[in-house]
């Protein structure tokens, strides 16, 4: 009798535990979008859809500002090794993630500037379809997090860090694009185009090698006050603004990044994460010592007033400014061409002095303010002692 009673109690306890577990499972919050997706997938009510991927610099997409296709300093900037397609319902709740490997992506055009790929989607309307390119290293984290949070507003949470050298370097540049209010039907097998935006900016520094600009030879570029991380997806894909997190700290404030100038054309190119150079995330104006800037290092050979003397090491600070002399942010998918067309005067004696002093001789574009400063630096003989810099982007 005693053994039989214990067995009965064990059976009763097991039934009670199963009842409790079933109750907990039934009370667990379930993403209705995921449930609907699984139900639709069970019925196989899908349609194969072909997407076309454009890049803003290839002539097909409406925008022209972008990094170049080829460079000796960076990888092929239109290369896409994989695409992660993230689906959200009309309430912007996460539904599913689909992966397209490189073998499933076709390239078109001379430099592969247009891509196409096809995936099967459940018929219906999607609030957002997000496209992530070249993010294999953080994809597991993205998928697991979105499956538990299922909120599109968290799509900007994913960041990547720079290399141990402090320089931004990728085999394939992470990119992001999205389509909104997409309806998939039996008649929508093609014709959907998405623009991918590279998540970094490209800087190109050139000193013109012209007959009237022979006094300065560029040797190195030093970069101060960069960010060590960036976002895969911007805060707002429709705004040309830097996506900077509150609390992010700038690096290279004392020891800058260093890039050697090219031998052939005295030019160099490199990638940077986005940077806010006008105001911080709280709206406070950024001081000169805090802005991302460049310092050009080279040899100045004054063959006019000091003929016969050896070239002297010199440094010039160059800030990111528009043609009016106003500070500008460094924004993803832009190429900033820092063109120095004329150097007529020796700059600072050291890297430290150049960074800590705004050079009155530097004239940015057509700025009246800087033109006035340059004019005041003109010698009695009429010689122009200014440095002419134009930043195109």
Could you characterize the architecture of this molecule?
The protein has a 5-stranded antiparallel beta sheet. Helices cover 16% and strands 34% of the residues. It contains 5 helices and 22 strands. The radius of gyration is 28 Å and the shape is elongated. The model is unreliable at 1-42, 58-66, 68-75 and 367-381 (pLDDT under 50). The chain has helices spanning 2-27, 32-42, 139-149, 351-356, 368-376; strands spanning 46-54, 82-88, 94-101, 106-108, 114-122, 124-133, 159-161, 175-184, 192-195, 197-198, 201-207, 216-224, 226-227, 229-231, 250-251, 257-260, 267-272, 293-300, 312-319, 335-343, 362-364, 387-392. It has 393 residues and is of the alpha+beta class.
The coarse overall form would be elongated
- Number of extended strands: 22
Task: Please estimate the helix content.
Answer: 10-25%
Low-confidence stretches: 1-42, 58-66, 68-75, 367-381
Largest sheet: 5 strands, antiparallel
The string of secondary-structure elements, in order, is: HHEEEEEEHEEEEEEEEEEEEEEHEHE
Beta-strand level of the residues, as a percent range? 25-35%
**Overall mean pLDDT score?**
75
Put simply, the count of helices is 5
Structural class: alpha+beta
- For the CA atoms, what is the radius of gyration? 28 Å
**Which strand order do you get reading across the main beta sheet?**
3-2-6-8-10
Distance between the termini: 89 Å
């Amino acid at each position: 009798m005693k053994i039989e009673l214990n067995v009965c109690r064990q059976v009763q306890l097991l039934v009670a535990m199963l009842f409790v577990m079933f109750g907990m499972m039934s009370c667990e919050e379930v993403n209705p979008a995921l449930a609907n997706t699984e139900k639709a997938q069970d019925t196989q009510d899908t349609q194969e859809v072909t997407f076309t991927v454009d890049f803003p610099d290839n002539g097909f997409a409406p925008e022209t500002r972008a990094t170049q296709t080829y460079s000796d300093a960076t990888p092929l900037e239109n290369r896409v090794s994989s695409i992660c397609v993230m689906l959200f319902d009309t309430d912007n709740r996460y539904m599913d993630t689909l992966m397209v490997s490189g073998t499933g992506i076709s390239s078109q055009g001379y430099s592969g500037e247009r891509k196409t790929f096809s995936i099967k989607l459940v018929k219906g309307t999607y609030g957002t379809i997000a496209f992530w390119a070249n993010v294999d290293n953080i994809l597991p984290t993205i998928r697991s997090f979105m499956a538990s949070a299922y909120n599109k507003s968290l799509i900007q949470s994913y960041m990547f860090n720079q290399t141990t050298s402090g320089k931004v370097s990728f085999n394939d540049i992470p990119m992001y694009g999205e389509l909104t209010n997409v309806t998939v039907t039996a008649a929508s097998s093609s014709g959907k185009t998405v623009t991918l935006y590279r998540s970094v900016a490209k800087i190109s520094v050139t000193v013109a090698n012209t007959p009237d600009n022979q006094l300065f030879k560029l040797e190195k570029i030093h970069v101060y006050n960069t960010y060590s991380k960036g976002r895969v997806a911007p805060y707002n894909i429709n705004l040309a603004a830097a996506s900077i997190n509150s609390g992010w700290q700038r690096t290279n404030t004392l020891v800058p990044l260093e890039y050697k100038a090219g031998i052939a054309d005295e030019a160099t190119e490199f990638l940077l994460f986005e940077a806010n150079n006008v105001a911080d995330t709280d709206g406070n104006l950024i001081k000169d010592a805090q802005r991302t800037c460049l310092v050009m290092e080279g040899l100045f050979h004054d063959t006019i007033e000091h003929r016969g003397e050896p070239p002297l090491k010199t440094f010039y600070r160059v800030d990111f400014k528009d043609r009016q002399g106003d500070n500008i942010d460094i924004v993803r998918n832009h190429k900033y061409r820092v063109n120095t067309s004329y150097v007529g005067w020796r700059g600072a004696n050291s890297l430290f002095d150049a960074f800590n002093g705004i050079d009155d001789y530097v004239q940015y574009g057509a700025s009246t303010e800087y033109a006035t400063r340059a004019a005041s630096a003109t010698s009695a003989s009429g010689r122009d002692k200014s440095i002419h810099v134009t930043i195109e982007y």
